[in-house]
Specification:
569 residues; alpha/beta; FAD/NAD(P)-binding domain; 8-stranded mixed sheet; 6-stranded antiparallel sheet; 12 helices; globular
Length: 569
Amino acid sequence: MVTTLDKVDVVTVGVGWTGGIIAAECAKEGLKVVGLERGRERGTEDFSIVHDEYRYAVRYELMQDLSKETVTFRNNRNQRALPMRQMGSFLLGEGLGGSGTHWNGQNWRFLPYDFQIKTMTEQKYGNKLSADYLLQDWGITYDELEPYFDRFEKTAGISGEDKNPFWGKRSSDYPTPPMKKTAILKKFETATSNLGYSPFMMPSANLSEPYENPDGQKINACQYCGFCERFGCEYGAKTSPEITVVPAARATGNYEIKFNANVVEIMKEGDKVTGVRYIDTVTFEEFIQPAEVVVLTSYILNNAKLLMVSQIGEQYDPNTGRGTLGKNYAYQILPGATGFFDEQMNTFMGAGALGMTVDDFNGDNFDHADLEFIHGASLSITQTGSRPILFNPLPPDTPSWGAEFKKASIENFTRTLNVGGQGASMPHKENYLSLDGTYKDIYGVPLLQLTYNFTDQDRALHSYLSEKAAGIMQEMGAKTVAGGNPISDYDIVPYQTTHNTGGTIMGADPANSVVNNYLQHWDMENLFVVGAGNFAHNGGYNPTGTVGALAYRCAEGIINYSKNGGSLV
């Protein structure tokens, strides 16, 4: 038996950054909003034991239970896709705050080049990439999105400095000053300056000082404990949805969150959606939540899956190139270099976004005319806190066990640094999302299938940027430098990043995108889909800041639609 609930103005599927922003903005405008979160409620008070590395970083306390739902993976269409049985390449969050609870806090705006990448690349280089790469503009410019970037940064209290000569113009400075410039960061700053680059402090959601945001939510100052990524913050100092936008939404009296609510279908009638069907993950009772507007605000994989199982939009077909749903899936490339030093450093202290960066090799900030790739990477040194279980750096040719292994482990724990890049990933016709024809989740819904492999573009970018990172490390004075190994096939097992993008891409034309630049679905005017799935490609940064800006843009669109109806573009 299915229970139908009272109709609301807006229902969001997922309560992380995007769901929280949508809820806060709509509720402040008087709209009745329900957020459906398949995980449980949690907050700062739950993280007093957060320094348990085994519980959170190894056993994944804050992550999705893959015994209930996972994804299947293959490198190409000729392989059999198999389920991911444990967290590996990326970490899927679950519970209030989603991935916004366990993120590191590195917060970026994508470059102006990113939003018009096809136009700008062709103007400068012609058809540099083959037709197999599905390059396209986003249907919005950096300047159009800038006010929303500014809004997100003020909500989050981002700590930073406007010293990067390569990024887009800002309408205002960061709301809080940058984090502490440690001895390790100063070593990077000196080396990159000597090489003629332009170092700057990384924009951080681990705040440098206490801050009260425009909604009246207070965020504390970072304690530099080194337990950010994979952990919630016990101090309330890492900006997360559950300490900012969710309380702001609740304060209006127009917002309700239903926990343990796993949405399995978007309900529709004609050319509009009518609500969602969800299952209580504890009792397995079924409910229908009617709504005037449905907003998909879960992780990119689930957003795409819900559209697919609900048969909304045309599934991308790599054979014909037709369809947009599932198209342009992209990941990230991680070039870099590790340096081993003689002197000891306080590597065990830090914060998720305590770092310095150079953008000299990001976007189109350098000449690609004679290179076999486009775009690039932000190259950074981060002092995130070296934890004892998962951090064990060893110089090349060290035995993998025995006395020499133990000696090298002890020697290098506080004598190792890494310069790493977040390399951009261009969409390829063979990299996409679809439904699996064999495997289903615990609720009887087909699993999402990921077909993905690195491309020649990826390999060329990785090789070039790893050399640049090695040059920085040498200038920093490392006695031994180990450059990043060349990449071959993508493997879903070792952790890389949780920066998946694409599948529900935005654009100016329904022929090549799923949603418009207000994140309104082209086929269903009262359905909105917001998240990193909207990215037409992946850039050289973490996606969160750009996702936050898109969420504020989407919220504005939902409010306008609720008043006037119709297409927003």
